[in-house]
Protein backbone atom coordinates (compact mmCIF):
# COMPACT_ATOMS: atom_id res chain seq x y z
CA UNK A 1 0.00 0.00 0.00
CA UNK A 2 2.99 2.33 0.50
CA UNK A 3 3.56 2.22 -3.25
CA UNK A 4 -0.01 3.38 -3.90
CA UNK A 5 0.32 6.23 -1.39
CA UNK A 6 3.64 7.41 -2.80
CA UNK A 7 2.29 7.46 -6.35
CA UNK A 8 -0.92 9.13 -5.08
CA UNK A 9 1.07 12.06 -3.74
CA UNK A 10 3.23 12.15 -6.88
CA UNK A 11 0.17 12.57 -9.11
CA UNK A 12 0.54 9.41 -11.17
CA UNK A 13 -1.53 6.90 -9.18
CA UNK A 14 -4.09 5.11 -11.34
CA UNK A 15 -5.55 2.77 -8.71
CA UNK A 16 -6.06 4.98 -5.66
CA UNK A 17 -9.57 3.55 -5.27
CA UNK A 18 -8.05 0.20 -4.29
CA UNK A 19 -6.73 1.89 -1.16
CA UNK A 20 -9.13 4.72 -0.34
CA UNK A 21 -12.85 4.27 0.28
CA UNK A 22 -14.67 1.47 2.09
CA UNK A 23 -13.42 -2.07 1.38
CA UNK A 24 -14.60 -5.44 2.74
CA UNK A 25 -12.06 -6.68 5.25
CA UNK A 26 -12.30 -9.70 7.56
CA UNK A 27 -15.87 -9.54 8.93
CA UNK A 28 -16.41 -5.85 8.34
CA UNK A 29 -15.14 -2.93 6.28
CA UNK A 30 -11.94 -0.90 6.40
CA UNK A 31 -12.31 2.81 5.65
CA UNK A 32 -9.54 5.09 4.42
CA UNK A 33 -9.74 8.80 3.72
CA UNK A 34 -7.47 11.62 2.63
CA UNK A 35 -8.29 14.81 4.57
CA UNK A 36 -5.10 16.79 5.38
CA UNK A 37 -6.97 19.75 6.90
CA UNK A 38 -8.85 17.57 9.39
CA UNK A 39 -8.06 17.57 13.09
CA UNK A 40 -10.35 14.64 13.62
CA UNK A 41 -12.54 12.33 11.53
CA UNK A 42 -15.45 10.17 12.64
CA UNK A 43 -17.38 7.62 10.64
CA UNK A 44 -21.10 7.95 11.14
CA UNK A 45 -23.85 5.78 9.73
CA UNK A 46 -26.77 3.46 10.32
CA UNK A 47 -24.46 1.02 12.10
CA UNK A 48 -23.79 3.49 14.96
CA UNK A 49 -26.99 5.54 14.88
CA UNK A 50 -25.02 8.38 13.27
CA UNK A 51 -22.99 8.90 16.43
CA UNK A 52 -19.27 8.67 15.67
CA UNK A 53 -17.63 9.04 19.06
CA UNK A 54 -16.77 5.34 19.10
CA UNK A 55 -15.66 5.29 15.47
CA UNK A 56 -12.91 7.88 15.28
CA UNK A 57 -10.46 7.32 12.46
CA UNK A 58 -6.74 7.00 13.17
CA UNK A 59 -4.29 9.22 11.30
CA UNK A 60 -1.84 6.76 9.77
CA UNK A 61 0.19 9.13 7.58
CA UNK A 62 1.27 12.65 8.47
CA UNK A 63 0.28 13.81 4.99
CA UNK A 64 -3.36 13.46 6.01
CA UNK A 65 -4.45 9.83 5.57
CA UNK A 66 -6.95 8.38 8.05
CA UNK A 67 -8.01 4.75 8.56
CA UNK A 68 -10.50 2.72 10.59
CA UNK A 69 -11.68 -0.88 10.55
CA UNK A 70 -15.25 -1.49 11.75
CA UNK A 71 -16.24 -5.09 12.25
CA UNK A 72 -19.97 -4.57 12.64
CA UNK A 73 -20.49 -3.12 9.18
CA UNK A 74 -21.90 -6.20 7.55
CA UNK A 75 -22.21 -6.41 3.79
CA UNK A 76 -23.32 -4.03 1.08
CA UNK A 77 -25.67 -1.06 1.33
CA UNK A 78 -24.56 0.14 4.78
CA UNK A 79 -25.12 3.92 4.77
CA UNK A 80 -22.30 6.16 6.03
CA UNK A 81 -20.62 9.56 5.91
CA UNK A 82 -17.44 11.11 7.24
CA UNK A 83 -17.84 13.64 10.05
CA UNK A 84 -14.80 15.89 9.67
CA UNK A 85 -13.60 18.32 12.34
CA UNK A 86 -11.55 20.92 10.48
CA UNK A 87 -8.63 23.08 11.59
CA UNK A 88 -11.16 25.92 11.66
CA UNK A 89 -13.06 23.99 14.35
CA UNK A 90 -16.06 23.27 12.13
CA UNK A 91 -17.75 19.88 11.76
CA UNK A 92 -18.51 18.86 8.14
CA UNK A 93 -20.59 15.84 7.14
CA UNK A 94 -19.27 14.58 3.82
CA UNK A 95 -19.93 11.70 1.46
CA UNK A 96 -16.92 9.50 0.68
CA UNK A 97 -15.02 10.79 -2.41
CA UNK A 98 -14.21 7.14 -3.18
CA UNK A 99 -17.65 5.70 -2.40
CA UNK A 100 -18.55 2.86 -4.76
CA UNK A 101 -22.27 3.34 -4.28
CA UNK A 102 -24.50 6.11 -2.96
CA UNK A 103 -28.01 6.82 -1.80
CA UNK A 104 -30.64 7.78 -4.35
CA UNK A 105 -31.10 11.53 -4.68
CA UNK A 106 -32.09 13.69 -2.85
CA UNK A 107 -30.26 11.71 -0.13
CA UNK A 108 -26.50 12.12 -0.25
CA UNK A 109 -24.86 9.51 1.98
CA UNK A 110 -22.43 6.86 0.73
CA UNK A 111 -23.11 3.12 0.85
CA UNK A 112 -20.74 0.24 1.33
CA UNK A 113 -20.50 -1.99 -1.73
CA UNK A 114 -18.13 -4.71 -2.88
CA UNK A 115 -17.44 -3.70 -6.47
CA UNK A 116 -14.94 -6.56 -6.98
CA UNK A 117 -17.54 -9.28 -7.60
CA UNK A 118 -16.86 -10.46 -11.15
CA UNK A 119 -19.11 -12.47 -13.47
CA UNK A 120 -17.85 -11.22 -16.83
CA UNK A 121 -17.86 -13.63 -19.76
CA UNK A 122 -16.47 -11.19 -22.33
CA UNK A 123 -12.82 -12.26 -22.63
CA UNK A 124 -13.05 -12.88 -26.36
CA UNK A 125 -14.58 -9.48 -26.98
CA UNK A 126 -11.91 -7.68 -24.96
CA UNK A 127 -9.13 -9.53 -26.78
CA UNK A 128 -10.45 -8.67 -30.22
CA UNK A 129 -11.75 -5.13 -29.74
CA UNK A 130 -10.01 -2.44 -31.78
CA UNK A 131 -9.65 1.31 -31.88
CA UNK A 132 -11.66 1.14 -35.11
CA UNK A 133 -8.96 2.73 -37.27
CA UNK A 134 -9.94 0.26 -40.00
CA UNK A 135 -13.39 -0.57 -38.67
CA UNK A 136 -16.69 1.30 -38.61
CA UNK A 137 -17.40 3.31 -35.47
CA UNK A 138 -21.11 4.09 -35.36
CA UNK A 139 -22.08 5.42 -31.92
CA UNK A 140 -25.54 5.76 -30.41
CA UNK A 141 -25.55 8.36 -27.62
CA UNK A 142 -28.08 7.65 -24.88
CA UNK A 143 -29.41 9.19 -21.70
CA UNK A 144 -30.42 6.07 -19.79
CA UNK A 145 -33.25 7.71 -17.87
CA UNK A 146 -35.09 8.94 -20.94
CA UNK A 147 -34.30 6.39 -23.65
CA UNK A 148 -37.21 4.29 -22.47
CA UNK A 149 -39.32 4.66 -19.36
CA UNK A 150 -41.83 2.34 -17.75
CA UNK A 151 -45.54 3.09 -18.02
CA UNK A 152 -45.50 4.68 -14.59
CA UNK A 153 -42.62 6.97 -15.60
CA UNK A 154 -40.02 5.12 -13.51
CA UNK A 155 -36.58 4.12 -14.80
CA UNK A 156 -35.52 0.77 -16.15
CA UNK A 157 -32.59 -0.73 -14.26
CA UNK A 158 -29.26 -1.43 -15.95
CA UNK A 159 -30.33 -5.08 -16.17
CA UNK A 160 -33.83 -4.41 -17.45
CA UNK A 161 -32.77 -2.01 -20.17
CA UNK A 162 -29.96 -4.26 -21.49
CA UNK A 163 -32.07 -6.46 -23.83
CA UNK A 164 -34.13 -3.46 -25.00
CA UNK A 165 -31.05 -1.44 -25.87
CA UNK A 166 -29.22 -4.33 -27.52
CA UNK A 167 -32.14 -5.20 -29.77
CA UNK A 168 -32.49 -1.56 -30.81
CA UNK A 169 -28.78 -1.04 -31.41
CA UNK A 170 -28.57 -4.12 -33.61
CA UNK A 171 -31.63 -3.15 -35.59
CA UNK A 172 -30.05 0.22 -36.41
CA UNK A 173 -26.52 -1.15 -37.02
CA UNK A 174 -24.77 0.77 -34.26
CA UNK A 175 -21.38 -0.57 -33.24
CA UNK A 176 -21.11 1.26 -29.90
CA UNK A 177 -23.32 2.66 -27.18
CA UNK A 178 -22.27 5.90 -25.50
CA UNK A 179 -23.96 6.64 -22.17
CA UNK A 180 -24.19 10.18 -20.83
CA UNK A 181 -22.52 10.48 -17.40
CA UNK A 182 -23.53 7.76 -14.95
CA UNK A 183 -21.41 9.00 -12.06
CA UNK A 184 -23.66 10.00 -9.17
CA UNK A 185 -25.21 13.47 -9.45
CA UNK A 186 -27.87 15.26 -7.40
CA UNK A 187 -29.88 17.00 -10.15
CA UNK A 188 -31.57 15.10 -12.98
CA UNK A 189 -31.56 18.23 -15.13
CA UNK A 190 -27.75 18.29 -15.22
CA UNK A 191 -27.91 14.99 -17.18
CA UNK A 192 -24.95 13.83 -15.10
CA UNK A 193 -22.59 16.61 -16.19
CA UNK A 194 -22.53 18.05 -12.64
CA UNK A 195 -21.15 15.08 -10.73
CA UNK A 196 -20.95 14.68 -6.98
CA UNK A 197 -19.47 11.18 -6.55
CA UNK A 198 -17.06 10.11 -9.27
CA UNK A 199 -16.65 6.46 -8.25
CA UNK A 200 -20.36 5.92 -7.58
CA UNK A 201 -22.40 4.63 -10.49
CA UNK A 202 -25.71 6.41 -10.14
CA UNK A 203 -28.25 4.51 -8.07
CA UNK A 204 -31.07 5.80 -10.32
CA UNK A 205 -30.74 2.67 -12.44
CA UNK A 206 -29.41 0.12 -9.97
CA UNK A 207 -26.13 -0.97 -8.40
CA UNK A 208 -22.61 -1.54 -9.80
CA UNK A 209 -23.19 -5.25 -10.39
CA UNK A 210 -26.24 -4.50 -12.47
CA UNK A 211 -24.14 -2.11 -14.52
CA UNK A 212 -21.57 -4.87 -15.00
CA UNK A 213 -24.41 -7.02 -16.31
CA UNK A 214 -25.28 -4.38 -18.92
CA UNK A 215 -21.66 -4.12 -20.09
CA UNK A 216 -21.26 -7.88 -20.26
CA UNK A 217 -24.44 -8.29 -22.31
CA UNK A 218 -23.36 -5.56 -24.73
CA UNK A 219 -19.99 -7.26 -25.23
CA UNK A 220 -21.57 -10.68 -25.74
CA UNK A 221 -23.58 -9.06 -28.53
CA UNK A 222 -20.44 -7.48 -30.04
CA UNK A 223 -21.37 -3.94 -29.01
CA UNK A 224 -18.86 -1.63 -27.35
CA UNK A 225 -19.60 0.77 -24.50
CA UNK A 226 -18.29 4.33 -24.17
CA UNK A 227 -18.99 6.39 -21.06
CA UNK A 228 -19.05 10.16 -20.69
CA UNK A 229 -16.54 11.56 -18.22
CA UNK A 230 -16.51 15.10 -16.81
CA UNK A 231 -12.92 16.11 -15.98
CA UNK A 232 -13.41 19.87 -15.76
CA UNK A 233 -15.72 20.57 -12.83
CA UNK A 234 -17.85 19.17 -10.01
CA UNK A 235 -21.12 20.16 -8.38
CA UNK A 236 -21.23 22.73 -5.56
CA UNK A 237 -23.39 20.67 -3.19
CA UNK A 238 -22.05 20.79 0.39
CA UNK A 239 -22.07 17.02 0.84
CA UNK A 240 -19.65 16.41 -2.02
CA UNK A 241 -16.09 17.46 -2.87
CA UNK A 242 -16.43 21.21 -2.32
CA UNK A 243 -14.14 22.40 0.53
CA UNK A 244 -14.01 18.76 1.47
CA UNK A 245 -12.00 18.98 4.67
CA UNK A 246 -12.52 22.70 5.19
CA UNK A 247 -9.80 23.52 2.67
CA UNK A 248 -9.84 23.82 -1.10
CA UNK A 249 -8.73 20.23 -1.50
CA UNK A 250 -9.99 19.38 -5.00
CA UNK A 251 -10.73 22.87 -6.31
CA UNK A 252 -8.42 25.87 -6.54
CA UNK A 253 -10.22 28.52 -4.47
CA UNK A 254 -13.62 30.13 -4.15
CA UNK A 255 -13.01 32.06 -7.38
CA UNK A 256 -12.35 28.83 -9.24
CA UNK A 257 -15.92 28.72 -10.61
CA UNK A 258 -16.96 27.50 -14.04
CA UNK A 259 -19.54 29.06 -16.36
CA UNK A 260 -21.89 26.30 -15.17
CA UNK A 261 -21.63 27.60 -11.57
CA UNK A 262 -19.62 24.58 -10.48
CA UNK A 263 -16.14 24.23 -9.02
CA UNK A 264 -13.18 23.63 -11.30
CA UNK A 265 -10.75 20.83 -10.48
CA UNK A 266 -7.24 22.08 -9.76
CA UNK A 267 -4.87 19.85 -11.73
CA UNK A 268 -1.81 21.58 -10.34
CA UNK A 269 -2.38 19.37 -7.28
CA UNK A 270 -0.94 15.85 -7.56
CA UNK A 271 -3.76 14.36 -5.48
CA UNK A 272 -6.33 15.71 -7.99
CA UNK A 273 -4.36 14.21 -10.86
CA UNK A 274 -4.34 10.84 -9.09
CA UNK A 275 -8.01 11.05 -8.13
CA UNK A 276 -9.24 11.70 -11.68
CA UNK A 277 -6.81 9.28 -13.32
CA UNK A 278 -7.89 6.56 -10.89
CA UNK A 279 -11.52 7.24 -11.72
CA UNK A 280 -10.92 6.62 -15.43
CA UNK A 281 -8.91 3.50 -14.63
CA UNK A 282 -11.69 2.26 -12.32
CA UNK A 283 -14.33 2.18 -15.03
CA UNK A 284 -12.02 0.67 -17.61
CA UNK A 285 -10.70 -2.07 -15.32
CA UNK A 286 -13.58 -2.93 -13.04
CA UNK A 287 -16.43 -2.49 -15.51
CA UNK A 288 -14.70 -3.34 -18.80
CA UNK A 289 -15.92 -0.20 -20.55
CA UNK A 290 -14.39 0.22 -23.99
CA UNK A 291 -13.91 3.94 -24.13
CA UNK A 292 -14.20 7.29 -22.43
CA UNK A 293 -15.53 10.45 -24.00
CA UNK A 294 -13.99 13.41 -22.16
CA UNK A 295 -16.38 16.34 -21.86
CA UNK A 296 -15.54 20.01 -22.52
CA UNK A 297 -11.87 19.56 -23.41
CA UNK A 298 -11.65 23.16 -24.67
CA UNK A 299 -12.30 24.14 -21.04
CA UNK A 300 -9.45 21.90 -19.96
CA UNK A 301 -7.11 23.51 -22.47
CA UNK A 302 -8.17 27.13 -21.93
CA UNK A 303 -9.79 28.64 -18.85
CA UNK A 304 -13.53 28.80 -19.53
CA UNK A 305 -12.74 27.53 -23.02
CA UNK A 306 -11.51 30.98 -24.09
CA UNK A 307 -8.24 31.04 -26.01
CA UNK A 308 -7.63 34.61 -24.80
CA UNK A 309 -7.30 33.29 -21.24
CA UNK A 310 -4.20 31.32 -22.15
CA UNK A 311 -3.27 27.68 -21.84
CA UNK A 312 -3.82 25.70 -18.65
CA UNK A 313 -0.55 23.78 -18.55
CA UNK A 314 -1.43 21.62 -15.54
CA UNK A 315 -4.63 20.42 -17.21
CA UNK A 316 -2.82 19.69 -20.45
CA UNK A 317 -0.13 17.74 -18.63
CA UNK A 318 -2.78 15.67 -16.85
CA UNK A 319 -4.52 14.80 -20.13
CA UNK A 320 -1.25 13.68 -21.68
CA UNK A 321 -0.35 11.62 -18.61
CA UNK A 322 -3.82 10.08 -18.29
CA UNK A 323 -4.10 9.13 -21.96
CA UNK A 324 -0.62 7.64 -21.96
CA UNK A 325 -1.18 5.55 -18.81
CA UNK A 326 -4.68 4.37 -19.78
CA UNK A 327 -3.59 3.37 -23.29
CA UNK A 328 -0.64 1.47 -21.83
CA UNK A 329 -2.80 -0.53 -19.41
CA UNK A 330 -5.83 -1.34 -21.58
CA UNK A 331 -6.02 -3.00 -24.96
CA UNK A 332 -7.52 -0.83 -27.70
CA UNK A 333 -9.67 1.47 -25.61
CA UNK A 334 -11.20 4.56 -27.22
CA UNK A 335 -10.20 7.96 -25.79
CA UNK A 336 -12.41 10.65 -27.31
CA UNK A 337 -12.20 14.42 -26.90
CA UNK A 338 -15.28 16.63 -27.07
CA UNK A 339 -13.28 19.67 -28.08
CA UNK A 340 -14.39 22.86 -29.85
CA UNK A 341 -10.97 24.53 -29.78
CA UNK A 342 -8.36 24.77 -32.54
CA UNK A 343 -5.62 23.52 -30.22
CA UNK A 344 -3.32 21.35 -32.37
CA UNK A 345 -2.39 17.66 -32.09
CA UNK A 346 -5.33 16.59 -29.95
CA UNK A 347 -5.26 13.13 -31.56
CA UNK A 348 -1.52 12.78 -31.96
CA UNK A 349 0.31 10.38 -29.61
CA UNK A 350 1.85 11.83 -26.50
CA UNK A 351 5.32 10.80 -27.70
CA UNK A 352 4.75 13.17 -30.65
CA UNK A 353 3.77 15.97 -28.26
CA UNK A 354 0.06 15.38 -28.80
CA UNK A 355 -2.67 15.09 -26.20
CA UNK A 356 -3.00 11.37 -26.93
CA UNK A 357 -6.70 11.11 -27.74
CA UNK A 358 -7.83 8.67 -30.41
CA UNK A 359 -10.64 10.82 -31.81
CA UNK A 360 -11.87 14.39 -31.59
CA UNK A 361 -15.43 15.57 -32.14
CA UNK A 362 -15.70 17.66 -35.31
CA UNK A 363 -17.92 20.37 -33.91
CA UNK A 364 -16.98 22.63 -36.82
CA UNK A 365 -18.50 20.16 -39.28
CA UNK A 366 -21.64 19.92 -37.16
CA UNK A 367 -22.10 23.68 -36.75
CA UNK A 368 -21.37 24.50 -40.39
CA UNK A 369 -23.64 21.79 -41.77
CA UNK A 370 -26.60 22.72 -39.60
CA UNK A 371 -26.08 26.43 -40.33
CA UNK A 372 -26.14 25.66 -44.07
CA UNK A 373 -29.38 23.69 -43.76
CA UNK A 374 -31.07 26.58 -41.96
CA UNK A 375 -30.58 28.74 -45.04
CA UNK A 376 -33.27 29.17 -47.65
CA UNK A 377 -32.13 26.91 -50.55
CA UNK A 378 -32.37 29.95 -52.85
CA UNK A 379 -29.49 31.58 -50.94
CA UNK A 380 -27.43 28.48 -50.14
CA UNK A 381 -25.20 29.11 -53.15
CA UNK A 382 -23.68 32.00 -51.17
CA UNK A 383 -22.68 29.63 -48.36
CA UNK A 384 -20.98 26.72 -50.12
CA UNK A 385 -18.01 27.00 -47.77
CA UNK A 386 -20.19 25.66 -44.96
CA UNK A 387 -20.15 22.30 -46.77
CA UNK A 388 -16.83 22.19 -48.57
CA UNK A 389 -14.66 23.66 -45.78
CA UNK A 390 -14.63 20.56 -43.55
CA UNK A 391 -12.29 18.63 -45.85
CA UNK A 392 -9.72 21.43 -45.81
CA UNK A 393 -8.88 20.70 -42.16
CA UNK A 394 -10.13 17.12 -41.86
CA UNK A 395 -6.67 15.50 -41.98
CA UNK A 396 -5.34 17.62 -39.12
CA UNK A 397 -6.94 15.28 -36.56
CA UNK A 398 -8.82 11.99 -36.36
CA UNK A 399 -12.28 13.45 -36.40
CA UNK A 400 -15.62 12.02 -35.31
CA UNK A 401 -18.80 13.57 -36.74
CA UNK A 402 -21.37 14.20 -33.97
CA UNK A 403 -25.04 15.07 -34.00
CA UNK A 404 -25.27 14.94 -30.23
CA UNK A 405 -27.64 15.80 -27.40
CA UNK A 406 -26.23 19.33 -27.24
CA UNK A 407 -27.90 20.11 -30.57
CA UNK A 408 -31.44 19.16 -29.59
CA UNK A 409 -31.94 21.01 -26.28
CA UNK A 410 -32.26 24.53 -24.86
CA UNK A 411 -34.51 25.87 -27.63
CA UNK A 412 -32.06 24.91 -30.38
CA UNK A 413 -34.70 22.73 -32.07
CA UNK A 414 -34.46 19.09 -33.09
CA UNK A 415 -32.28 18.17 -36.05
CA UNK A 416 -35.19 18.07 -38.51
CA UNK A 417 -36.60 21.32 -37.16
CA UNK A 418 -33.35 23.13 -37.92
CA UNK A 419 -33.86 22.54 -41.65
CA UNK A 420 -35.49 25.20 -43.84
CA UNK A 421 -38.55 24.13 -45.80
CA UNK A 422 -42.01 22.64 -45.68
CA UNK A 423 -42.88 19.53 -43.67
CA UNK A 424 -42.11 17.21 -46.58
CA UNK A 425 -39.01 19.15 -47.68
CA UNK A 426 -37.57 18.80 -44.18
CA UNK A 427 -37.72 15.00 -44.48
CA UNK A 428 -36.20 15.10 -47.96
CA UNK A 429 -33.28 17.20 -46.77
CA UNK A 430 -32.87 15.16 -43.59
CA UNK A 431 -32.20 12.14 -45.77
CA UNK A 432 -29.58 14.16 -47.66
CA UNK A 433 -28.00 15.26 -44.38
CA UNK A 434 -27.62 11.69 -43.16
CA UNK A 435 -26.23 10.52 -46.49
CA UNK A 436 -23.70 13.33 -46.17
CA UNK A 437 -22.87 12.36 -42.58
CA UNK A 438 -22.41 8.63 -43.23
CA UNK A 439 -20.39 9.11 -46.43
CA UNK A 440 -18.18 11.98 -45.20
CA UNK A 441 -14.86 10.68 -43.80
CA UNK A 442 -14.81 10.39 -40.01
CA UNK A 443 -16.44 8.22 -37.37
CA UNK A 444 -20.12 8.79 -36.50
CA UNK A 445 -22.24 9.64 -33.45
CA UNK A 446 -25.98 10.21 -33.21
CA UNK A 447 -28.08 11.07 -30.20
CA UNK A 448 -31.12 8.94 -29.45
CA UNK A 449 -34.19 10.06 -31.38
CA UNK A 450 -32.24 11.39 -34.36
CA UNK A 451 -33.06 8.15 -36.17
CA UNK A 452 -36.80 8.86 -35.74
CA UNK A 453 -36.80 12.42 -37.13
CA UNK A 454 -38.29 13.73 -33.89
CA UNK A 455 -39.70 17.25 -34.08
CA UNK A 456 -39.72 17.77 -30.31
CA UNK A 457 -36.59 18.74 -28.43
CA UNK A 458 -35.22 16.13 -26.08
CA UNK A 459 -36.15 16.32 -22.40
CA UNK A 460 -34.64 14.17 -19.67
CA UNK A 461 -38.09 14.04 -18.04
CA UNK A 462 -39.75 11.84 -20.64
CA UNK A 463 -38.93 8.89 -22.84
CA UNK A 464 -38.28 8.96 -26.57
CA UNK A 465 -41.50 9.00 -28.63
CA UNK A 466 -41.11 5.68 -30.41
CA UNK A 467 -44.81 5.78 -31.31
CA UNK A 468 -43.94 8.54 -33.77
CA UNK A 469 -43.20 5.72 -36.22
CA UNK A 470 -46.96 5.32 -36.77
CA UNK A 471 -46.68 8.38 -39.04
CA UNK A 472 -45.61 7.38 -42.58
CA UNK A 473 -42.78 9.87 -43.17
CA UNK A 474 -41.20 9.12 -39.80
CA UNK A 475 -41.43 5.38 -40.43
CA UNK A 476 -39.93 5.76 -43.91
CA UNK A 477 -37.14 7.99 -42.61
CA UNK A 478 -36.33 5.41 -39.95
CA UNK A 479 -36.13 2.80 -42.70
CA UNK A 480 -33.74 5.07 -44.59
CA UNK A 481 -31.61 5.61 -41.48
CA UNK A 482 -31.26 1.87 -41.00
CA UNK A 483 -30.20 1.49 -44.63
CA UNK A 484 -27.56 4.23 -44.63
CA UNK A 485 -26.28 3.00 -41.27
CA UNK A 486 -26.09 -0.54 -42.67
CA UNK A 487 -24.17 0.62 -45.75
CA UNK A 488 -21.71 2.47 -43.54
CA UNK A 489 -20.82 -0.57 -41.43
CA UNK A 490 -20.79 -2.99 -44.39
CA UNK A 491 -18.87 -0.98 -47.01
CA UNK A 492 -15.10 -0.64 -46.25
CA UNK A 493 -14.96 2.27 -48.72
CA UNK A 494 -16.92 4.32 -46.19
CA UNK A 495 -14.69 3.69 -43.18
CA UNK A 496 -11.38 1.94 -43.87
CA UNK A 497 -8.27 4.13 -44.14
CA UNK A 498 -10.52 7.20 -44.16
CA UNK A 499 -7.86 9.48 -42.65
CA UNK A 500 -5.72 9.00 -45.77
CA UNK A 501 -6.17 12.03 -48.04
CA UNK A 502 -5.73 9.80 -51.09
CA UNK A 503 -9.08 8.16 -50.37
CA UNK A 504 -11.28 11.23 -50.85
CA UNK A 505 -11.70 13.52 -53.84
CA UNK A 506 -14.08 16.37 -54.57
CA UNK A 507 -15.68 16.20 -58.01
CA UNK A 508 -17.88 19.26 -57.50
CA UNK A 509 -17.92 21.45 -54.40
CA UNK A 510 -18.13 25.03 -55.63
CA UNK A 511 -21.09 25.03 -58.00
CA UNK A 512 -23.73 27.51 -56.84
CA UNK A 513 -26.49 25.08 -57.85
CA UNK A 514 -25.82 23.41 -54.44
CA UNK A 515 -25.04 19.98 -55.90
CA UNK A 516 -21.99 18.49 -54.17
CA UNK A 517 -20.24 15.43 -55.57
CA UNK A 518 -17.28 13.51 -54.16
CA UNK A 519 -15.56 10.15 -54.50
CA UNK A 520 -14.50 7.75 -51.77
CA UNK A 521 -11.80 5.16 -52.51
CA UNK A 522 -10.74 1.90 -50.92
CA UNK A 523 -8.06 -0.20 -52.59
CA UNK A 524 -9.53 -0.96 -56.03
CA UNK A 525 -13.11 0.00 -55.19
CA UNK A 526 -14.73 3.42 -55.18
CA UNK A 527 -18.03 5.17 -54.59
CA UNK A 528 -19.47 8.40 -55.90
CA UNK A 529 -21.73 10.39 -53.58
CA UNK A 530 -24.08 13.06 -54.91
CA UNK A 531 -25.83 15.51 -52.60
CA UNK A 532 -28.46 17.86 -53.99
CA UNK A 533 -29.31 20.50 -51.39
CA UNK A 534 -31.45 22.46 -53.88
CA UNK A 535 -35.09 22.30 -54.95
CA UNK A 536 -34.11 21.75 -58.60
CA UNK A 537 -34.15 18.31 -60.20
CA UNK A 538 -32.04 17.11 -63.14
CA UNK A 539 -32.98 14.55 -65.77
CA UNK A 540 -29.41 14.03 -66.98
CA UNK A 541 -26.67 15.53 -64.79
CA UNK A 542 -23.19 14.86 -66.21
CA UNK A 543 -19.81 14.96 -64.50
CA UNK A 544 -16.35 13.40 -64.70
CA UNK A 545 -15.24 10.49 -62.51
CA UNK A 546 -11.80 9.05 -61.73
CA UNK A 547 -12.42 5.68 -63.33
CA UNK A 548 -11.81 5.36 -67.08
CA UNK A 549 -14.02 2.38 -67.88
CA UNK A 550 -16.72 0.22 -66.36
CA UNK A 551 -20.02 1.07 -64.71
CA UNK A 552 -21.57 2.48 -61.59
CA UNK A 553 -24.60 1.05 -59.85
CA UNK A 554 -26.90 3.11 -57.66
CA UNK A 555 -26.94 1.39 -54.25
CA UNK A 556 -28.90 4.10 -52.45
CA UNK A 557 -31.18 6.92 -53.55
CA UNK A 558 -32.92 8.98 -50.90
CA UNK A 559 -35.73 9.71 -53.38
CA UNK A 560 -36.77 6.06 -53.44
CA UNK A 561 -40.49 5.89 -52.60
CA UNK A 562 -39.85 3.38 -49.80
CA UNK A 563 -37.98 6.17 -48.00
CA UNK A 564 -40.66 8.80 -48.69
CA UNK A 565 -39.48 10.01 -52.11
CA UNK A 566 -40.88 10.03 -55.65
CA UNK A 567 -38.76 7.29 -57.26
CA UNK A 568 -36.67 9.66 -59.39
CA UNK A 569 -33.95 7.01 -59.39
CA UNK A 570 -31.35 5.30 -61.63
CA UNK A 571 -32.26 1.62 -61.80
CA UNK A 572 -29.75 0.69 -64.48
CA UNK A 573 -26.00 0.37 -65.00
CA UNK A 574 -24.48 3.83 -65.34
CA UNK A 575 -21.77 3.49 -67.97
CA UNK A 576 -18.59 5.57 -68.01
CA UNK A 577 -18.23 7.16 -71.46
CA UNK A 578 -15.07 7.90 -73.46
CA UNK A 579 -14.75 11.31 -71.77
CA UNK A 580 -14.67 9.65 -68.33
CA UNK A 581 -18.12 11.06 -67.64
CA UNK A 582 -21.36 9.60 -66.34
CA UNK A 583 -24.89 10.98 -66.39
CA UNK A 584 -27.52 10.47 -63.71
CA UNK A 585 -31.00 11.58 -62.73
CA UNK A 586 -31.00 13.69 -59.59
CA UNK A 587 -34.22 14.53 -57.77
CA UNK A 588 -34.65 17.76 -55.83
CA UNK A 589 -33.39 17.54 -52.25
CA UNK A 590 -31.92 14.10 -52.79
CA UNK A 591 -28.77 12.06 -52.26
CA UNK A 592 -27.30 9.21 -54.33
CA UNK A 593 -24.59 6.67 -53.65
CA UNK A 594 -23.06 5.00 -56.71
CA UNK A 595 -20.77 1.99 -56.41
CA UNK A 596 -18.15 1.24 -59.06
CA UNK A 597 -17.97 -2.02 -60.98
CA UNK A 598 -15.46 -2.99 -63.68
CA UNK A 599 -18.16 -4.85 -65.56
Describe the 3D structure.
It is built from 13 helices and 28 strands. The protein has 599 residues and is an alpha/beta fold. Among the domains are: 101 residues, Immunoglobulins (Immunoglobulin-like), CATH 2.60.40.10; 95 residues, Sandwich (Immunoglobulin-like), CATH 2.60.40.1180. It is elongated. Helix 1 packs across helix 6, helix 4 packs parallel to helix 5 and helix 12 runs parallel beside helix 13. The model has no long low-confidence stretch (mean pLDDT 96). Strand 6 and strand 7 form a beta hairpin. The strands form seven sheets. Strands 9-10-13-16-17-18-19-20 form an eight-stranded parallel β-barrel. A six-stranded antiparallel beta sheet has the order 21-22-23-28-25-26. Strands 1-2-5-4 form a four-stranded antiparallel beta sheet, with no helix packed on it.
CATH class of one domain: Mainly Beta
Poorly predicted runs of 5 or more residues: none
Q: What number is the mean pLDDT?
A: 96
Number of helices: 13
> Total number of β-strand segments?
28
> What would the CATH topology of one domain be?
Immunoglobulin-like
Gyration radius, in Å = 26 Å
List the defining traits of the structure above.
Immunoglobulin-like, 8-stranded parallel β-barrel, 6-stranded antiparallel sheet, alpha/beta, 24% strand, 24% helix, 599 residues, single chain
Amino acid sequence: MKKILDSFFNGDCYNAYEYFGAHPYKKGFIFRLYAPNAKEVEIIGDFNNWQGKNHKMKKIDNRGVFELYIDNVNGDYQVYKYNIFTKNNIWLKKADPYAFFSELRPSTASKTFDYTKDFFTDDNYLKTRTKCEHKPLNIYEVHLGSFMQKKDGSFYSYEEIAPLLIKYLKKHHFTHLEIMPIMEHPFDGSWGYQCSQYFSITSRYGNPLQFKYLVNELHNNNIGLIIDFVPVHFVKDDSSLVKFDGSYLYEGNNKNISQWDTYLFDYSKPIVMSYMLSCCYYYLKEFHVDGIRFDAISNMIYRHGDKNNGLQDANINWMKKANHILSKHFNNILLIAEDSSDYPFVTKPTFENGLGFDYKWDLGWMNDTLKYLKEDPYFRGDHLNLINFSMYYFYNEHFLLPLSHDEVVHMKGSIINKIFGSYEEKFQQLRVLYTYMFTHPGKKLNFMGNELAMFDEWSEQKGIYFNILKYPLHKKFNKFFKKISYLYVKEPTLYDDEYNFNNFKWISCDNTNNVFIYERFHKLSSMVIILNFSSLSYEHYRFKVSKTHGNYKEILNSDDEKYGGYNFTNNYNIKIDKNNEIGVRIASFSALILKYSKK
